């Protein structure tokens, strides 16, 4: 424990982007407000992280220690304002030191503590790999600077092909922003997660960070404007999508458009009802996965 305090102190003193930020590990109880009806998704097993930054809970992540990446992150959407923060990447000391004071802290400029390296992804895993850092909870879906900066933690990130991250997946994030901003009247709860390969998992570095085959996202906005335009009739109260993260995957789940720009070809996103997403999740995880309480059907 004293080592982690020393580590945190060193980081605060020497890092160029220091911050007093915090995160809790092991229980969603302190951050249930990020789930519709305080009900975290059912069917997926992992390590819950209540992501804390500047002494406030910002979102929630179900982390997979063996994969060194999240199963999903859950957050409440708010209309973005201002510019994307400069990336100051952080890690979760409590994954390395169970007794550590809860605090998401920036990576030090030099070598990283070996217990941190063992317990989670570090920047070196992504540097010079063929994958970019794909946010589960994107900074684009938040208003305050602190909420946006808090998304730059590697516990909120999976290896994502640039063809997806800078292409169809980014378009999906814009589309969700536009739809929710225009027609969601109350809270919008969003969960974004991964679908692993069925066989032959891919990894960054030597079995360090698992690469997902697909990325999915779903929102639940129970209180919305009923005067929806025709093209958004199916988009409320809940809607979902799955995006390809491997241009060579088969086309059963998400077909490939041959007219997409070359750098984005094979990274299509397919929008679909929540029930359809849950069929694919059940098939891949071999268990029923429920993203929202009563499939977001309840009145609020
Ligand atoms: C990344 O690749 C560049 C160019 O090959 C090399 O100069 C650099 O040292 C590499 N960085 C790391 C961290 O491996
Ligand atoms: C989010 O959507 C709103 C409403 O369409 C739009 O005005 C705004 O520019 C969008 N923000 C971003 C960052 O795309
Ligand atoms: C609902 O949408 C309609 C059509 O876009 C708009 O005229 C109306 O002001 C909206 N109502 C609310 C409560 O936002
Ligand atoms: C897709 O397959 C081609 C041909 O086998 C290969 O060159 C390429 O690296 C593969 N791409 C990915 C993202 O696996």
From TrEMBL:
It comes from the Eukaryota. Gene3D superfamilies: Extracellular Endonuclease, subunit A. Residues 55-270 form the DNA/RNA non-specific endonuclease/pyrophosphatase/phosphodiesterase domain. PROSITE patterns: PROKAR_LIPOPROTEIN (PS51257). This is DNA/RNA non-specific endonuclease domain-containing protein. InterPro entries: DNA/RNA_non-sp_Endonuclease_sf (IPR044929), Endo_G_ENPP1-like_dom (IPR001604), ENDOD1 (IPR039015), ENPP1-3/EXOG-like_nuc-like (IPR020821), His-Me_finger_sf (IPR044925). Keywords: Signal. SUPFAM superfamilies: His-Me finger endonucleases. Residues 1-23 form the signal peptide. Coiled coil: none annotated. GO terms for molecular function: hydrolase activity; metal ion binding; nucleic acid binding. It holds the Pfam family Endonuclease_NS. Residues 56-276 form the ENPP1-3/EXOG-like endonuclease/phosphodiesterase domain. It comes from Perca fluviatilis (European perch).
């Amino acid at each position: 424990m004293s080592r982690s305090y020393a580590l945190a102190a060193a980081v605060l003193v020497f890092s160029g982007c220091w911050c007093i930020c915090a995160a809790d590990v092991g229980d969603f109880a302190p951050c249930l407000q990020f789930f519709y009806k305080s009900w975290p998704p059912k069917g997926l097993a992992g390590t819950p992280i209540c992501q804390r930054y500047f002494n406030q809970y910002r979102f929630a992540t179900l982390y997979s220690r063996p994969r060194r990446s999240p199963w999903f992150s859950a957050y409440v959407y708010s209309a973005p304002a201002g510019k994307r923060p400069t990336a100051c990447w952080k890690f979760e000391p409590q994954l390395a030191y169970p007794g550590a004071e809860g605090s998401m802290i920036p990576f030090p400029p030099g070598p990283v503590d070996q217990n941190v390296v063992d317990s989670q992804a570090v920047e070196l895993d992504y540097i010079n790999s063929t994958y970019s850092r794909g946010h589960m909870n994107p900074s684009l879906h938040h208003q305050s600077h602190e909420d946006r900066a808090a998304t730059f933690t590697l516990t909120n990130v999976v290896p994502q092909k640039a063809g997806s991250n800078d292409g169809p997946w980014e378009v999906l994030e814009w589309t969700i922003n536009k739809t929710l901003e225009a027609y969601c009247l109350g809270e919008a709860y969003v969960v974004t997660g991964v679908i692993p390969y069925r066989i032959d998992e891919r990894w960054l570095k030597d079995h360090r960070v698992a690469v997902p085959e697909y990325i999915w996202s779903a929102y639940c906005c129970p209180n919305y404007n009923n005067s929806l335009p025709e093209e958004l009739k199916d988009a409320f109260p809940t809607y979902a999508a799955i995006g390809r993260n491997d241009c060579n995957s088969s086309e059963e789940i998400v077909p490939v458009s041959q007219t997409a720009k070359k750098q984005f070809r094979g990274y299509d996103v397919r929008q679909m009802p929540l029930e359809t997403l849950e069929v694919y999740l059940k098939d891949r995880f071999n268990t029923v996965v429920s993203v929202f309480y009563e499939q977001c059907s309840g009145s609020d």
